[in-house]
Amino acid sequence: MSNNGRMVLSDFINPPPVDQIGIEERVARLNKRSIKKKSKISALKLALSMIDLTTLEGKDSKGKVRQLCNKALHLHDSFPDLPHVAAICVYPPMVPTAVECLSGSNVKVASVATAFPSGMTSLQTKLSEVRRVVRMGADEVDMVISRGAFLRGKYKFVFDEIASVKEACGEAHLKVILETGELNTLDNVRLASDIAIGAGADFIKTSTGKIQPASTQPVALVMMQAIRDHYFKTGKKVGLKAAGGISNAKTAIQYLVLVKETLGVDWLTPDLFRFGASSLANDLLMQILKQTEGVYQSANYFSKD
């Protein structure tokens, strides 16, 4: 660690090897946990409060973003005991629209940046984009790491780039997307997690959702272990965002169990755990109404955007 307290590359260049079999067995074991009805309702509502409702398509429009923001603020008005989602996540040009629509609420505005999803542009361009979305009012920035540089062993380049983006964020929180589906091994996932955390990430995030595999529970568990070890070493809490492929309540609850058993109850808050998903919200709403009213509503009963 440097004299100013910042982590340096040598602090984590040799992370512990990952026991893939042990990771997969632990996930399988925890997935067998059964949850009683009262606890299940609480878990469903908690998961709902952790969602970043997301639209990241080339055909996105201001109207679509307004509709998504309206959904964030009015998930189900006839059911007043529901929490609001954590954030709306959009492309940079849509930030002003989201900021306007969510003004006065507690729902955060997140924006992808740094040439999402590829990250294939210059650092100067990345920093300019980050500063622009923060200036427009984004509370959170989701950046992508340079996977090509990482896979070529250019770890200092990746570390320095994340640290520069963190500085450009100012007061905005930084979520660092590892794009774990391109990292090939769990050992690489662990190393990339340690680099991102050491460089100043407020959250580490599994994936962009643009490639497969996206988020998986074994990958998320390895990232949680990196977060836990960093907390034990420094006392600093870093968040985790699981994004891509999480579309049903059962899977969401399985992730919450992983969080509780690995990081503890302190991480069971939107401040430290998020789901990057939109379709998940509707399934959670369906399950909450089923648990409380005894019947399923049709999927068409809820807005799709």
Report, as a whole number of angstroms, the end-to-end distance: 46 Å
CATH topology, by name, is TIM Barrel
Strand order of the largest sheet: 1-2-3-4-5-6-7-8
Q: Assign the CATH architecture.
A: Alpha-Beta Barrel
Mean pLDDT: 92
N to C succession of SSEs: HHEHEHEHEHHEHEHEHEH
Using the alpha-carbon principal axes, give the shape: globular
Strand content: 5-15%
How many helix segments? Answer: 11
CATH class: Alpha Beta
Q: Tell me about the biggest sheet?
A: 8 strands, parallel, barrel
- Going by CATH, what is the homologous superfamily? Aldolase class I
Overview of the structural elements:
The protein contains 11 helices and 8 strands. It has 305 residues and is of the alpha/beta class. It has a single domain, classed as TIM Barrel (Alpha-Beta Barrel). α1 crosses α9 and α9 runs parallel beside α10. The chain is globular. The termini are far apart. The model has no long low-confidence stretch (mean pLDDT 92).
